[in-house]
Each structure stands twice: as C-alpha cells, then as structure tokens.
Amino acid sequence: MAREIAPVADRTQSADCASGGYGTRATGVRRVLVHVLLLNAAVVLLKLWVGLGTGALTVLGAALESGLDLLNNALGISLIPLAARGPDDDHPYGHAKFETLGTLGIVGFLSISCFELLREGVVALATGHAPHRADPADITLLVATLAINAWVVWYERHQGRRLSSSFLLADAAHTGSDILVTLLAIASLGLTRAGLVRVDGLLAVAVALLIARSGWHILRESVPILVDARGMDAHELRRLASEVPGILEVRTVRSRSTASGHLFAEMTIVVAGSQSVADAHALADQVEAAVARVAGESEVVIHIEPE
Asked: What is the pLDDT of residues 29-68, one digit of tens each?
C-alpha cells in the first residue's frame, strides 16, 4: 500500500498554503526586495559618484558590487512569484526550486564582477595606476553607504528567516560582503591621501577575493537543494519510525527538502500481516506525526508492507 497524507501536525498549515500561503510568502519577499532595491540604488549612485570622481578601483569595485545587489533584487522580484506557486500537475512538488535557481544567478553575477575587478587590480599594480586625491566629502559619502549596507544586511536576514526565503538570506550574505568591500574602499581613499598611491590596486585584488568568497558560500548552500541532497538524516528517519510500536522494520528511506525547509520524505515500513488496513494506516499516521514534530513542515509518503 502506498499513501500520501500531510502530517497530522501540519494538515492545517498545508491547507493554509493551498489557500494562499504561498502567495502571502511571495508578497512578503517581494515587498522586502522592493525596499532593498531602492536603498541599493541610492548606494550605487553614491559610490559611482565617488569612484568616477577619484578613479579609485576599490570604490568602483564597491559600486559594481552594489550594482550586482541591485540586479539581484530585480531578479528576485521577477522570480519569487514563480517560486511561490503551489504544486500542479507538471510540478507536483511545487516551484520552490526556481528561488534557488535565482541564487545561482547571484553567483553568476559575482563571478563576472570578481574576474573584472581582479584583472583591473593586477593591471593597476603592474602599471602603478593611482587614484586622484579624495576629499573628506568623498569619504563621508562612503561612510553613509556603509551604514545603509549594514542596515540592509540586518533587514534582509531578519526577513529572510521570518519568511524562510533562501533568496533573501543569500542576498543578505552578498550585501554583507559589501560592508567589507566598502571598508576597503574607505581605507584605500584614506591611504591614498596619506601618499600610499599603489595601495588601491592591492586592495582591489582583496575586494575581488571577497566577492569570490561570497559566491562560494552561496553556491555551497544552493547546489545541494538543486541536486536533491538528503533533507534529513536517514538514520534519524529510521529511528523515528522504529520507535512507533507495531512497526517491525523500516526499509527504504529517502528525503529531500526545499530552500524554505519543507521536507519531502518516503519510507517503507513493515507491519504484521495480520493487521487490518485501518490499523496499518494508523501506524503510518504516527510515523508522519513523529517526523513532523522533528522536521516541521513536511510531506511523508509511507509504503506499508506485510511481514
């Protein structure tokens, strides 16, 4: 026998999702991204103003990094509604992976910016390129963008956890790298004013490496979801099922999860051949409830076999 029932502890929640929970979450994520996009647009303009005025590679690199944030926000605003669609005939597990695909778009943008900035930094070191002397007002503007970046990181992380959005969390991690990049840009302008004119190229290389590090972290978190890595330890699933009185053996166990933490699991349990169908279904209900207590939102398919 094979059956699929939303876990007892999550049936109400599943019903909510079916009646609009997906849309509510998508609306919340999009609202956050619109707010962040406007702030990032201001940051890009300020950094470009300072970077073009001084010719500092680190500042232009910081503007590029913030520009990628802006593009990522636009990407998210367009992708999140698609990812929020519930299951249908063609996508029985929903569309949540489209959100994870969006995080790979972030990695692609990061790779481009990393390469270009690294190349320019090496060229600057080789040719002795030096930015123009920065005014105190330029440094003040960069400090202002630093404060905006810090607030955006806090806001996106808070909302990403609240809405269980991998895209918001990934974008917050990217913006977090902006803080270090902006600090390096401020340091570059300050050291250039002190007469260390070649430091800008060196710090530009450091900025490129920070961008590469951000991309690696995002990639490491996104790929397991796309390739259906296990969503929950198989030994833990077996233990939860085995602890239900009346289950004689747990055979096949599989699981995967979405970016929001929704667990999909399958397992085969063995019960006494003398058990009625109703009793066997009751045992399956207990397994589903046990998994839901540990994993939270989940959908479990139980295959029941007689001894």
From this structure: 888 999 999 999 999 999 999 888 888 888 887 887 788 7
Q: Give the pLDDT confidence of 63-108 residue by residue, as tens digits.
A: 877 887 887 788 778 777 776 676 777 777 766 677 677 777 777 7
Other C-beta atoms lying within 10 Å of the C-beta of residue 133:
12
User: CA separation (Å) from 100 to 20, 22, 36, 69, 114?
Assistant: 21, 16, 19, 16, 21
Q: Which two tokens stand for residue 7?
A: 């876990």
Number of C-beta neighbours around residue 75 at 10 A = 20
Q: Give the β-pairing of 298-306 and 2-5.
A: antiparallel
CB atoms closer than 10 angstroms to residue 199: 21
Alpha-carbon gap, residue 94 to 50, rounded angstroms: 45
CB 136 within 8 A of CB 193: no
Query: Rounded to two decimals, what is the model's pTM?
Result: 0.60
Distance of alpha carbon 141 from alpha carbon 71, whole angstroms: 22
DSSP string, 269-286: EEE-TTS-HHHHHHHHHH
